[in-house]
């Protein structure tokens, strides 16, 4: 796919970041994601993946480089709209669910946008329906299963009507059934998706394209089957497929007809 400025959902150029202790987490990181793409961001622990993700909606402040989401460049004056456009789903759903009920959690973002109570209720109903969690509104988020929490965390983001979803280790803590449900869920969502994961089979199943980040830099960017078939590249960056897994045999996919959000155009 040829990505132009007009078709890009995310453009990052020369992004660098140094923590106060002097550790340089990002080094002139540059990448572009097309509208509607699902892209896996892979790499060893400490590669800078989460640091990068936290820049995309201003949780970490820019030190050097630029970030553009659609036609809008990240800057102090655009921060509110960028945070609406970029929906972050954290690795631990408990970091995202903090209200007494699921409905209040999902309504929190729309309420901060100044929406009326009726519009908030509509956003809650739509978002919960999109993740298959109808009827969860009155439940306590802390009494949900890990898979249910993950779905509700995604719903809190969908309620903001984002253009880009950023998911940090979304399969963490899920059992096989919960993982399968997550694959199916992501396939129903039409938003552009950037998925940070160590789960290489999951990346193969969900994402047509994968990027390896190492030492704060992009070191590989290729179609996922091609990238995962390069065992030397994976070993060099401390990535490993499960024993006996063949990345040239892609699992059957049922994720190409989204039912929620913008339609994909691959």
Any chance you could write out the topology, listing elements then pairs?
Blueprint: E1 8-18, E2 24-34, E3 38-42, H1 49-55, E4 64-69, E5 72-73, H2 79-85, E6 86-89, H3 102-112, H4 117-130, H5 146-158, E7 164-168, H6 176-188, E8 192-196, H7 200-206, E9 209-214, E10 217-223, H8 224-228, H9 231-236
Parallel strand pairs: 3-8, 3-9, 6-7, 7-8
Antiparallel strand pairs: 1-2, 1-4, 4-5, 9-10
Helix pairs in contact: 3-4, 3-5, 4-5, 5-6
Sequence stretches where pLDDT stays below 50 over 5 or more residues: none
Shape, principal axes of CA atoms: globular
The separation of the N and C termini measures: 8 Å
Sketch the topology as an H/E string, one letter per element: EEEHEEHEHHHEHEHEEHH
Describe the structure concisely.
Helix content is 31%, strand content 23%. It is α/β, with parallel strands linked by helices and 266 residues long. A 6-stranded mixed beta sheet has the order 6-7-8-3-9-10, sandwiched between helices. The chain has a 4-stranded antiparallel beta sheet with strand order 2-1-4-5, covered by helices on one side.
């Amino acid at each position: 796919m040829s990505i132009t400025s007009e078709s890009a959902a995310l453009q990052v150029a020369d992004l660098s970041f140094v923590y106060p202790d002097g550790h340089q987490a990002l080094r002139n990181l540059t990448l572009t994601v097309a509208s509607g793409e699902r892209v896996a961001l892979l790499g060893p622990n400490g590669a800078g993946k989460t640091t990068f993700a936290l820049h995309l909606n201003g949780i970490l402040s820019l030190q050097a480089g630029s970030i553009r989401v659609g036609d809008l460049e990240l800057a102090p004056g655009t921060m509110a709209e960028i945070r609406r456009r970029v929906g972050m789903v954290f690795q631990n759903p408990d970091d995202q669910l903090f209200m007494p009920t699921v409905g209040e959690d999902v309504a929190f973002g729309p309420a901060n946008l100044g929406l009326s109570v009726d519009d908030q209720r509509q956003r809650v109903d739509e978002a919960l329906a999109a993740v298959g969690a109808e009827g969860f509104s009155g439940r306590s988020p802390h009494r949900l299963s890990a898979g249910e929490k993950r779905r509700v965390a995604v719903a809190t983001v969908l309620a903001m009507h984002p253009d880009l979803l950023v998911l940090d280790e979304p399969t963490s803590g899920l059992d096989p059934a919960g993982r399968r449900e997550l694959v199916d869920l992501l396939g129903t969502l039409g938003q552009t998706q950037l998925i940070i994961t160590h789960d290489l089979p999951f990346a193969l199943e969900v994402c047509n394209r994968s990027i390896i980040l190492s030492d704060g830099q992009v070191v590989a960017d290729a179609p996922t089957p091609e990238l995962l078939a390069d065992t030397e590249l994976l070993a060099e960056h401390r990535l490993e497929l499960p024993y006996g897994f063949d990345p040239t045999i892609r699992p059957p996919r049922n994720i190409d007809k989204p039912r929620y959000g913008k339609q994909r155009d691959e």
